[in-house]
Amino acid sequence: MAIDLDEDTLQFIRAHRVGRLATVARDNKPSVIPICYVFDGERVYSSIDEKPKSVAPEQLKRVRNISANSAVALVVDDYAEDWNELRYVLLVGLASIILPGDEDDEHRKAVQQLRNKYVQYRDMEIDKRPIIRILVTGIKQWAPKKKGDDDAKED
Amino acid sequence: MAIDLDEDTLQFIRAHRVGRLATVARDNKPSVIPICYVFDGERVYSSIDEKPKSVAPEQLKRVRNISANSAVALVVDDYAEDWNELRYVLLVGLASIILPGDEDDEHRKAVQQLRNKYVQYRDMEIDKRPIIRILVTGIKQWAPKKKGDDDAKED
Predict the structure, then answer these.
(1) d(CA B36, CA B17)
(2) Is there a smaller number of Cβ atoms within 10 Å at the N or the C end of chain A?
(3) What is the pLDDT at residue B146?
């Protein structure tokens, strides 16, 4: 695995139900939306048909953005009124679209993971729809500095 | 006001305590982090010293990104296990940094708004630190299509 990931961070990412995905359009302007996802330690998968949609998948801005620029960022975080409890994990990587019936069976396995994590997907035909795959190339995290900590770096 | 904003959407944005801000680096890769913010209907303000920091403000990635590319996006959303209750509002705009003692007194007013919304800021010296100002140029929102709705567009 190319990325440095301890068990606690892995669990933090996997346990959260929603993350926010940033993509960049052809004109270099960013977009950001909430997504449901699974993370296997190397790759993030997110169905682009997770919720009722009224447009074709390839017309979705996130899909058009990924086609133009595969660099994406996903943040998973905790907000709390006690700001000592704040925490976020930022995953950066390269996104692509995978389709049903791919050679490696990757789409089917991703659907399975998504349905394991989200019971909501079990009644939805996500097996027939494209999935965003993010190959994670870097992880950064931040939490408030506590006594005895090394310097926490922040973005 | 250049943007189309109804009272319900305004309240949705203002009532939330955390949003996620996407910026784009010089190499056109995105970043995204949780931020605290206020919104006056036209401009978003966010202190870049909202939490304990260990690096100088100008070294923060979000500040470097804004210097390289002022286009930003901020999402404010609700997640719920009942996916009929999902909702998000996406604000896009142009970011810049404002400093204490500016001619228009904008920094001081922003600090006041931030301290009104977040009691946590009242004991913090955000009046001495830079603030990110986002001039909002567009708002999009999404919620699941309900019976009788027009088509909901999604990113």
Answers:
(1) 6
(2) N
(3) 66
The reply to whether residue B55 touches residue A153, judged by beta carbons under 8 angstroms, is: yes
Number of domains within chain B: 1
**Mean pLDDT across A64-71:** 94
Whether chain A has a CB inside 8 Å of the CB on B32: the answer is: yes
CA–CA dist A115, A108 (Å, integer): 11
ipTM of the complex: 0.91
CATH number where A34 lies: 2.30.110.10
Put simply, the answer to whether A90 touches B152 (Cβ < 8 Å) is no
**CB distance A83–B144 less than 8 Å?**
no
Residue in the structure block whose two tokens are 């260990």 = B54
Which structural domain, as residue segments, surrounds residue B92? Answer: 7-142
Is there a domain that residue B149 lies in?
A: no
At residue B50, φ and ψ (nearest 5 deg) are -70, -25
Q: Does A16 reach chain B within 8 Å, measured CB to CB?
A: no
> Does residue B99 contact residue B57 with C-beta atoms inside 8 Å?
no
Q: Does A98 touch chain B (CB under 8 A)?
A: no
pLDDT of residue A120: 95
Q: What is the pLDDT of residue B6?
A: 94
Q: Over 90: is that where the pLDDT of A89 sits?
A: yes
Quote the pLDDT of residue B57: 72
Residue B148 belongs to some domain of the structure: no
Question: Does residue A119 fall inside a structural domain?
Answer: yes
For residue A113, CA distances in Å to A58, A76, A92, A107 come to 23, 18, 21, 10
In a domain, A127, yes or no: yes
Q: What digits encode the pLDDT tens for the residues B36-94?
A: 999 999 999 999 865 555 667 777 888 899 999 999 999 999 999 999 999 999 999 99
Nearest-by-Cβ selection for B75 from A20, A28, A145: A20
